[in-house]
Fold each of these.
Amino acid sequence: MGAEVKPVINSMDDPLLERFRPQERCEHLNFDVHANVARIEKDETDKTIVAYSVDLRLHCRDCGLPFEWVGLPLGFSHYQPTVSIDGQEMRVPAIPLGGKVTEGLAGFRVTMQAFPEKEPTRQ
Ligand SMILES: [Zn+2]
């Protein structure tokens, strides 16, 4: 039995890099967009459609690298575009042409907050 031989990548031009991390060599010239349209029902008992949501994911067709959506709030809303926690799914509310946005639908937003360095002490 011999010791495992690990390939060594000597530079960014090394052909081994292409084999192990092709996305670092890809120019991302071709894309696939995966779209899912969800019809949102009022609730479990009332199946009336009150909203639509279009979920979009973008990948490089050549290397498969997913893209992240930039500049959108984390969460889900029926009133503005949002992005999933991993940043890879954009969720866009939509209505049929000439339709009206249903008011009062629930959503959520994720906010970031730093933890305090130590717990507050009791007075
Ligand atoms: Zn690519």
Note: Residues 58 and 67 are 6 Å apart (CA to CA).
Amino acid sequence: MKNNTKTISTTMMRKAVSSAKMLAAAVMGTFFLASCDQLGDLDGVIPGGGNMPGKEMKMYKVQLNPLNNSGVTGTATVMMKENGEFEVITDIEGLVPNMVHPQHIHGFVMENMADKDAMCPPPSAGGADGLLTLEEGQPFYGPILIPLDDKLVPLTAENFPVATSAGTISYGGKVMTSSLVSAFDAMHNGTQTMKDLELDKRVIVIHGAYVINNAIVPANSNRVQYAKYMATLPVACGELVEMK
Ligand SMILES: [Cu+2]
């Protein structure tokens, strides 16, 4: 009897080990198939979304070029992600070090008519004195739509990024796209909800420079001590271009 019991139990053990192996193989097979499926889905869609069913990620690239001969350049990426997030990344150089640099998405939103395309102002927009102010640029890039600060809430301006001692900014900010659209809707008599944010009609403008006699003073000049820091002065601009 003892031997027989032992034999049975050994057999059961072997069966158990064998099924565990089969289970493991089955699980790995499933995992492998799932991986292949996900790779197939990566064509424009990031897996793991849910808040905006049926909507694929939209991505816009921005090349930031100098305004006011600032020497400020950079790039930006704007994403409306499948998980419902609106995310903006900016990488800028040539800025006044250690100073705050407001940055915004600008554009025109008008009720009951086609929205006008925002654009970066030409040098002539600076007028007789040659210095392009925030106001002189507005006929081209329009009013501020979204502050690229720590909250990205329209009509507020919280904490804008401060440039490093090397004059660079690497910024990343996020907000839910749905709350952004609601805020836009509230600003524009409910006309925005049925549209998307029409990002291909928008521009990003970066601000902030030292000025003397209607010209930007480079941050490394010893004249900076006599200059006025104009936080609103436009120093770079770029149009959003959708990546498809
Ligand atoms: Cu701005």
Note: The chain has three helices and ten strands.
